[in-house]
Amino acid sequence: MNEAAHIWMDGALVPWAEARVHVLTHALHYGTAVLEGTRAYETAQGPAVFRLDDHLTRLHHSARIIGLPLRYTTDELRAATLKTVAANGHPACYIRHLAHRGYGEMGIAARSAPTVVSIATWEWAPLLEQGVRLMTSSWRRNDQAVVPTAAKATGPYLNSVLAKSEALDAGYDEAVLLNAAGYVSECTGANLFVVRDGRLATPPPSAGALDGITQDTVERLAADLGVPVARRDLLRSDLYTADEVFLCGTAAGIVHVDSVDNRALNGRGPVTAKLSDAYDDVVHGRDPRYRHWLTPLG
């Protein structure tokens, strides 16, 4: 891992190796934490964080959903994020926001355990390479009646860990999860789009998919490019018969899928290419229409 110099923890920059938690931290035992993954990109005006306020708003919403007190405002977390990126001297980086219930009391509820907030940054290449080999996992996506899938919380990510491990062990790059009803939900850490006859479709949050910020970005870019897009239920067979399939997320970017369950697709098709190129221009500040999505360090 590309370690940086500092991690921000509850108001202070501490050396990377000293950003520690107690072994009886509540979140380690019960998954009581929420997170965000954000990126800063190189632009002609210097490093800038993409859709930072949207990520911080979702962090607050996730904390509210799981009942985790979060005492820092969006303004305070924005300032802390920019301070951390600048202190670590990154030209571009990944940013991990984490709010977790810390050490202070054990037991399921443990409401007196304090909330600890941290911001770590490091230089990290996209998690998936182009031409993903995708498999349908035997694991099903978490049911909303069991866990709140609208919250980007750490506990439910065990579902993704199991599916990702299964895919890697079977020789694939990534897994797609179906929900309990058999509809396509999302991948282990990315949303999914299919293209058919020049039209885009992506699973809705009701399918158990996270309401992704990169997913929303793709939808907005598609609308501006004149590409029809809809959120609707998708079957496994829709992936097999698609003209194009691509994944998107902060950690992955936009990556095309070469095959699903060993059914070959057409690779990086024209719609995927158009959206991928537009996304690259936006995050690097080359398209002035979307500069409001970039928060510079200065």
UniProtKB/TrEMBL annotation:
GO molecular function, one term: branched-chain-amino-acid transaminase activity
Enzyme class: transferase
Reported cofactor(s): pyridoxal 5'-phosphate
Keywords: Amino-acid biosynthesis, Aminotransferase, Branched-chain amino acid biosynthesis, Pyridoxal phosphate, Transferase
Pathway assignment: Amino-acid biosynthesis; L-isoleucine biosynthesis; L-isoleucine from 2-oxobutanoate: step 4/4; Amino-acid biosynthesis; L-leucine biosynthesis; L-leucine from 3-methyl-2-oxobutanoate: step 4/4; Amino-acid biosynthesis; L-valine biosynthesis; L-valine from pyruvate: step 4/4
Catalytic activity: L-leucine + 2-oxoglutarate = 4-methyl-2-oxopentanoate + L-glutamate; L-isoleucine + 2-oxoglutarate = (S)-3-methyl-2-oxopentanoate + L-glutamate; L-valine + 2-oxoglutarate = 3-methyl-2-oxobutanoate + L-glutamate
SUPFAM superfamilies, sorted: D-aminoacid aminotransferase-like PLP-dependent enzymes
Pfam families: Aminotran_4
EC code: 2.6.1.42
Family per record: Belongs to the class-IV pyridoxal-phosphate-dependent aminotransferase family.
Protein role: Acts on leucine, isoleucine and valine.
Protein's name in the database: Branched-chain-amino-acid aminotransferase
Lineage of the organism: Bacteria, Bacillati, Actinomycetota, Actinomycetes, Streptosporangiales
